[in-house]
Fold these 2 entries.
Entry 1:
Amino acid sequence: MDIKAPPGVFDILPKDPQEEWHNSHLWQFVERVMRNTAEQYGFQEIRTPIFERTELFQRGVGETSDIITKEMYTFIDKGERSLSLRPEGTAPVARAYIEHHLSHDSPVQKFYYIGPMFRYERAQAGRYRQHHQFGVEAIGNSSPEQDAELIDMLYTLYTRLGLKNLRVMVNSIGDAPCRIKYKEALKNYLKQYFDQLSEDSQKRFEKNPLRILDSKDPQDKEIVAKAPSILEFLSEDCKKHFEQLLLLLNSLEIPYEINDKIVRGLDYYNRTVYEVVAEELGAQNSIGGGGRYDGLIKELGGDDTPSTGFATGIERIIQAMLGQKAETPQSYHPTIFLIPLGDEAKIPCFQILNNLRINGIKAQMDFSGRKLGKIMNYANQLGSKFVVVIGDNELKTKQVELKNMETGEKILAPLFHLSRILRIEVEGEDFIRIWKEMNAPFEQPLEAEFFLKKLQQSIDSTKHLTEELQTAMKKMQDIL
């Protein structure tokens, strides 16, 4: 039986020689930067179920959206309930906010999430039936500063991941009264082109003509290019909100352009909407976006609560990083690989392995007992920085040779004190941060000799840096 993954999904592997963006160490790196950035901006993690009651998405996302009409994975469970795999993250967060009365804790709540979403759509570059999103939701604040913070956060995230040539496109679609006036003007314009519109856009004409602006059909895009601008129909409050947002973006020197055709694909948006695009992804070049959805929580049964958020696809981010040749971390490799020679060495070697791991050192040990040459080749394939062979002589002298696999250099080290030496080696120039441990009494002359050598290197480096700083300071003094 030849069982393979269903169409439109993929495996994330430790190493995929065909698709580099499937490699798990890239995903871990991107998710780590996402979590760190979110926490620096004051967002806390929220995790919602991957399936919800279907009506949540029908009410929240909107009956006319592509998600509801074409893309949801919906099923009836054994309790005769209609459930759907979550196609997006905002409605579940809003549901959780209402259900758990989170507004009682604080009037302003800031959440982030990372997880899979599910949409039945034609698989193409950056779009998959199971895809992964990082998203944030800021609930309880109606100010343009909150919108600006999220745009800044999204742009900062991309720059931290090494992405370049980004375009931030912003728009305002006003509030409900603004959109009522604009819809009439838009429909009056589109009437003359109705027969030329795509089938989907013709269906949207009566129910939600704004969605036609979001059409990806080339003919539709050509028609709406000359449509009236929604910015001409904004109320004074909406206009003031948008102008303040632009001032804030200017103050942060975030490059943006106003695109009055952005409406986003979901019905719950109002006022601020935005997208970020990366040219390396081709036609489907949007890597993230969001906007304000002040009426969603009330629509789902909660209080009338202002809210705003964004989401970004992790697949597209990684593909864009690789397309732009952004700097990415190396895949997993152990710091040290232990090779016991003979049965007598296995138990002490296993103890050392455990001690290294307890002290935060990535360590592996050979369990196969193969020939030494083959084991060394395997350690090299893993990318181990050091290899240590432990046999009768090493157990007797309690000393080993740390072989650097990159340089071939060998360091004589105490057998049962490897962890402290390797921690310093891994820390590199930052070893002074663990000075307290270094300052503890040394039990082995070899250990003390190693640290003295490292300390002397640091002193020499500091002297050189001090000389450079003094030169720079002299130049600044001359200028002043």
Note: The longest strand covers residues 109-118.
Entry 2:
Amino acid sequence: MGICSKIKRKKITKKMKKLSIISMLLLLVIACKEYKQVISSPENKTLKEEVVQEETANAELTQNKGIGPIKSITLASEIDQELVTKGEEIHKLMCAACHKTDKRYIGPAPAGIMERRSPEWIMNMILNPDQMVKEDPIAKDLLMEFNGSPMNNQNLTEEQARAILEYFRTL
């Protein structure tokens, strides 16, 4: 192999490297432009708006205190196991005929309710179901969702409702 062919091969190799770098840069620029178009597309804006609306709706649900005697309640950071035991017993006796802890039944499952509703709303629903289904928008929706089966007023005391709420914190 002669010196001329070695020089030609080096020049060709350099040109190929430059071309491949330029091609990669072009692909990167094109990909970035397409990504920006996707991100700013009307469909994506709608999706972002829907997520914001859903987050706002969830915040409103967990801030609704319901209608009834409970206006404010402060929950301790630690769960009171004695209260949980009482609440579980009351739930089995008074609520389990319609509410299975982890699945839909005649009424909604209480598992995860602490993420969906405020503690005040839960206690007011337990203590004041008749007025809640008449006046509270969430309770009205639940009544329709569960085929118009209203929750029976079990005439529980605030202490019993509080025990059930503590039990719900463990589900």
Note: The chain has two domains: 3-61, 65-168.
